[in-house]
Amino acid sequence: MEKFYLEEPCIKRKKEAIDFINEFYKYKSPINGTGGLQRFLDNYEGWLEKLEEDYKRIPNEEKVPARTYFLIRKEKF
Known about the structure:
With 77 residues, the protein is α+β, with helices and mostly antiparallel strands. It is 34% helix and 10% strand.
């Protein structure tokens, strides 16, 4: 049985995250649930800052705080 865990996005996952988005483009798939990463492919660090702002947001009638995670598959050893 495969094991998974949640991880907050961080700089060490930059290449994998961008590769993930590029795979959507390669297969012409709709992109949903990525925290807007597709708009930050040339500014991953800016995306991380945006995620922190999303989390610290004060709720209003249009938006509420949100936290984005990566679902990571544990590698078999």
